[in-house]
């Protein structure tokens, strides 16, 4: 019986033969084939914010264009929205709104009453939309002033990344002020420091 099964496997087309090398799959082309209507943009925003297992990349947000900005800002600002939706909206706003949303991201990153995932998204967005030359001015207040050590550590990581390691003295100084437990959160930041 086993020999019959083995013979059937060997007889199958392409069985145990080397497969031709193919190029790795490319990222999905997210360029819209036609201009999106306002309703289309709204539906895409809704779908992206509702995604659970599928990450939404910056280029997908960018295809929605500037018309997505007011919709995303409304969600980011609404305390009635789920924190996960607000965090995703921050990611989207960073992609399509750019530096214009910097004050909003800064405010949310500093606001102690915000859910942790919303603050994390705001700190990442701040890092993304801030020029390298202004990164220290924007991220240091969060590094030194946030009450939650996890938020401080994330600010430290992004400060180290955006400054190209030039702000590592500030990162280390803050880490020295942390409790032993909180210092563990700084591993990722220190990985970007020489």
Give an account of the 3D structure:
The protein is mainly α and 194 residues long. The protein folds into 2 domains: 37-129; 135-194, no CATH class. Helix content is 61%, strand content 0%. It has 12 helices and no strands. Helix 4 runs antiparallel to helix 5, helix 6 (102-110) packs antiparallel against helix 7 and helix 7 runs parallel beside helix 9. The radius of gyration is 23 Å and the shape is elongated. The N and C termini lie far apart (63 Å). Mean pLDDT is 86; it is low at 2-31.
Helices and strands in order:
Elements: H1 2-11, H2 38-50, H3 58-62, H4 69-77, H5 83-97, H6 102-110, H7 116-129, H8 135-145, H9 149-162, H10 168-177, H11 180-183, H12 187-190
* Overall mean pLDDT: 86
Q: Which stretches are low in confidence, meaning pLDDT under 50 for 5 or more residues running? A: 2-31
> How large is the share of residues in beta strands?
under 5%
How many discrete structural domains? 2
In a few lines, what is going on in this structure?
The chain is mainly α and about 190 residues long. The protein has helices at about 1-10, 40-50, 60, 70-75, 85-95, 100-110, 115-130, 135-145, 150-160, 170-175, 180-185, 185-190. It has twelve helices and no strands.
